[in-house]
Structure formats: C-alpha cells, structure tokens
Amino acid sequence: MLNVTVRPVECVSTCKICNAQAPLYGVTDFQKSCEEARGHYLPLTGVPIYYHRCNECGLVFTRAFDDWSKADYVQHIYNDEYVLIDPDYVDARPASNAAFILDFVKKGKDLKCLDYGGGNGKLAGLLRKDGLDAHSWDPMDAADAPPPSDSFDFVSAFEVLEHTPEPVATVREALGLLGPRGVLLFSTLTIDHVPPRGMDHWYIAPRNGHITIYTRRALDTLFAQEGFRVHHFNDNLHMALNNDPDWLS
Ligand SMILES: [Zn+2]
C-alpha cells in the first residue's frame, strides 16, 4: 500500500482560476497514468484521488496534493519510476520540441530563450547546439535553484501547466520571466468537452502529476487575468503574448 497523504475532499470546491463553484467531478486511483492509453496498467494503490470541475470555465482539478511539499512530489510522483509512465520525457519529446522551436523562432535574432519546467535540461541543450541562447529552469528541480533573475524574449513551457496545483502562481511566475514583447509558447492538452464523470480520459492521470486540466476558456481566463491573450494553435499547443514582437510576424 502506497503511503500517500492527501487532503480531505469537499463536495464543492472553488475554481483555482475563476473562483466559481466547482463540484466534484469524479475519482480515480492515484496510480492511474497516461500510459494506460498505450495498454500499460500499474497496480492500483487504493488511494482515491478526487477531481472537481468548474461550473464556469470547465477547469478539472484535484486539491488532493495542495498541501504537498516539493519533497512529497519528488518522492511519490517525480521519482525513479516516473520514466515508466512518461517514457517520452527522456528523449523523444525534447527532440521534437527542439525542432519545433527552431522553426518557430527562425525570424528572431539573438533571442534569449528559457525552457520553463525544463526538467533534465535536454531541450535547452539541443537548442544551444543549434546556436540559440537557450537556458533551462525547473521549479521542481531537486537542486532547488532559484528562478533566473534575467528576462527572456521567448519562454517555452512544454507539458508544465497540467502539473501545477497552483495555476495562477505558476503562470504568473512564467510570464514574469518574459521581457517586453516576450512570448510564452506552451503545451498542455485542453479538453473542452468532457462527459459527466469522464474520469476515463487518458490525460486525467494523477500518477503523471496531471492535477490541473484546462479548457481553452480556462486558459483564456487565466492569462487574461495577467494581461495576456492566448492563441490556440490546436488543442495542445498555445501561445501567450501581449504585444506582438517583430520576429513573430
Ligand atoms: Zn473556473
């Protein structure tokens, strides 16, 4: 039995983005992972994780880990077994994201880039090999390095926002790293239409640390509160900006 302590559950919570009422949406085992979509199932732990869904913006979120420290996350989620339930994390995703970024910023000159939530730093390393001034910083980094004091022309945040228990604070931190006319490019799967009790959706996966799942409206609301607008390239890839930089035209 996994020794995980989670918060007691409220029937109706408050949306972490728009503060509207968010009734209970469903429950799943702590061990549910995204790899179930590929037919890989971990043994269940008996630890129930409840999710709420906002009546207004549609945000699906759990408060189960709201009291966790960074050490709790490292022990129970981002541990040695994490690679088993997110195998693309190591190489495949950084390589494809690097190719995309190189194309995305190709009109820019000497752009200072940061990969926010960059984990192992692989993506920034690949970008540096191709001549970009690329840096990496991860709020969950075990070394506990403080966030960079510099500002950046371009910040990427791939598969980050679904991992935060505090979407407002995380987005504020990421946007705070942008210089004037900076651009945040980020991925997180938006699910605009979920059925009642749709907990079988592969992306709602506590073992992967997927604890906040957005709709496009939830993202729009979240970034508007910070003075930014969001462009949705598709359900997974988005861009936030306030003033368009020349290199993006
Ligand atoms: Zn909401």
Automatic annotation (TrEMBL):
Leader sequence segment: none
Top-level taxon: Bacteria
Pfam families: Methyltransf_23
Tagged with keyword Methyltransferase: yes
Keyword Methyltransferase recorded: yes
Gene3D superfamilies documented for this protein: Vaccinia Virus protein VP39
Single GO term (MF): methyltransferase activity
Matches recorded under SUPFAM superfamilies: S-adenosyl-L-methionine-dependent methyltransferases
Record keywords: Methyltransferase, Transferase
InterPro entries per the UniProt record, alphabetical: SAM-dependent_MTases_sf
Protein name: Methyltransferase-related protein
